[in-house]
From TrEMBL:
Matching InterPro entries: DUF697 (IPR021147), GTP-bd (IPR006073), P-loop_NTPase (IPR027417)
Protein name as catalogued: G domain-containing protein
Keywords linked to the UniProt accession: Membrane, Transmembrane, Transmembrane helix
Domain G: 40-151
Keyword Chloroplast applies: no
Keyword Cell inner membrane: no
Topology term for the membrane: Multi-pass membrane protein
GO molecular function, one term: GTP binding
One GO cellular component term noted in the UniProt record for this chain: membrane
Species annotation: Gemmata massiliana
Amino acid sequence: MSRFWDAVKRTVTGDASPPPDVEAALSAARAKTPAPTFWLLGKTQSGKTSLIRYLTGAEDAAIGSGFRPCTKTSRLYQFPTSDAPLLNFLDTRGVDEPGYDPTEDIAAFDPKAHVVIVTAKATDFAQGNVRHALERVREVNRSRPVVLVVTCLHEAIPRQAHPEPYPFGAMTADPNAPVPEGVPEHLRECIEEHKRAFVGLFDLCVPVDLTKSEDGFAEPNYGGEQVKQALLKVLPSAYRQTLLRLKDATDALKDAHQRHAEPIILGYTSLAGTAGAVPVPFVDMVLLPGIQARMAHHIGQIYGQPMTPERLRELVTAIGVGMISRQLVRQVVKFIPVVGSAVGATVAAASTYALGRALCFYFEAVCEGHVPTPDVLRKFYHEHYDAAEKQWKIDHPKGEAKAT
């Protein structure tokens, strides 16, 4: 437990960096954690930020400040945090500029990207530079899926409602499927033109109109669900599960704090599961405290509640000694090949998720003016631990905690 409190103190006092050897182990765990990486290829103002906002639920300001330079003409956004990302977005910014050379971006992104998402505004037909870059990207890896997302449909049908029900379902499954006849003529022509411009370079085409609620459209996320389904269809299985779990977990949440906290919890849960799967006894006893302390710090920030060492010590004590006993048992079973890693991943992930939910429960109560009793908090933690344990086993039936 001394390692746990050392990690807590470093986190809450501003020194969230673990020792170099631990940081190296955490970096290795992140590399094995199945966080899908989407390579965004499109002109400026072609709807890339709107797409990220829809897939993550993050606000534009958070997305903008979250991007970090990656190459001279590209940047990386990791959601919800760079510590424990669930989704990675690589944004190529210079593709619409004369003389753009994708060589550097291809060298940096090709080993990482699972899906290329090409964004093109419905009424913007000057896509020559984008097509040229996509040809180069496609050439180096023809097996990687490319999803063409035609955006801003309302610009092609001003003052008209979106065609309902969503008529482009066949196109999201078959790149050769025609645009249905019932679609307004100009919009149909726009979409067909983009399909011709990128012919042979994409696997699925999804027309969307992702707007803000204040823009006044009856359905601000028109085609959004179809984009998610298209991405789920083309992602490798382990990465597909990550996106699906994020979607399922956040769709049902109404509380704003919880919607923002849930991706944080899921990200650290996935990272903890990967660390727990390390087949060397006691290795994750070093990593897990740092992972959980960082999660606690981030959740406290969401609720506007500082996470002090004393407060976290109080919470962990209230939850009970079950956490410690589970960790000790986990280290013993790790001497059993294969089985030990599966148990380690399950316990690490379930305990991290349950702790995250217990922290949210605690902070919500504090915001309402009262503090849960230790018995109530302990009961809440164990209920969520049991549920998380069952779900992790469903998601990883063979004990697979890392990407394959």
